[in-house]
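[agent] plan:
  1. take the single chain provided in the ticket
  2. run structure prediction with default settings
  3. attach structure tokens to the ticket
  4. add a short note for the reviewer (M.T.)
[agent] executing step 1
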Amino acid sequence: MPQASLLPAPARYVLDANVFMTAYHSYYSPGICQGFWDCLEHYCLEGSVLSIDRVRAEILGPPGLVEWRNQAPGGMFAPSGEPEIADRFSRMQAWVRARDQFLPAAKDEFARVADGWLAAYAKVHDVVVVTQEVFNPDIRKKVPLPNVCREFDVPYVSTFDMLNDLDVHFDWRQPP
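[agent] step 2 finished; step 3 output follows
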């Protein structure tokens, strides 16, 4: 996996749905760390962070997260319908289908979800995928996004790696 310090500067990141959902449900919930959400909006407006329309469609709940999604800056969710992206996705889909390692249900799920489109978008636009998934060479029940990224030379990092590379700091403030 590429290290954040080895990424071209300035790096651009495209975020997986699990980045938003995991953050919202755990360590970066708005009640604990509104700064994370402000940071995403700031870097979106700056042009360093975005996601795609298909990820937007996967963010279905809870209501507070859906509200954030609906009010996110206009450039947060880029369209993924370009012919070159569709071509890359088709190649990735063919690779998944050809792997005996993955169970049929995993292959079907990969065809339905945003992961392949996200990797294809990243490859076409030369951006880094941000995901909470990890590479797993032996998994059968799911097609991990990092497995696809490695196969197609798409760089990927975790949320924490992205935040570190962007030099983001969340400061604690003493309650009144």
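[agent] step 4 note for reviewer: DSSP finds nine helices and five strands in the chain.
[agent] ticket updated
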